[in-house]
Amino acid sequence: MSNKINYTKLSKEVSYALRHAPWEYELELDKNGWVPIDQLLQA
What is the tens place of the pLDDT at every residue in 1-43? Predict the structure, then answer.
């Protein structure tokens, strides 16, 4: 079993979460579109 991280897949997932569906990940963006990193990492 491999422990390699697929950074392309991770990047696409984070982009989707931030740009298209933050509510699906329970993320709360501020008025400038930023989210605290600890909230993003937990999601």
Answer: 678 999 999 999 999 999 999 999 999 999 998 999 999 999 8
Query: Which 3 state secondary structure label does DSSP give 3?
Result: coil
* Amino acid sitting at position 26: E
- Helix or strand or coil: residue 38? helix
Q: Structural domains in the chain?
A: 7-42 (1.10.10.970)
**15 touches 22 (CB < 8 A):** no
Backbone angles phi, psi at 14, to 5 degrees: -65, -45
Q: How far apart are CA 27 and CA 15, in angstroms?
A: 12
Q: Dig out the tokens for 39 from the structure.
A: 């909230």
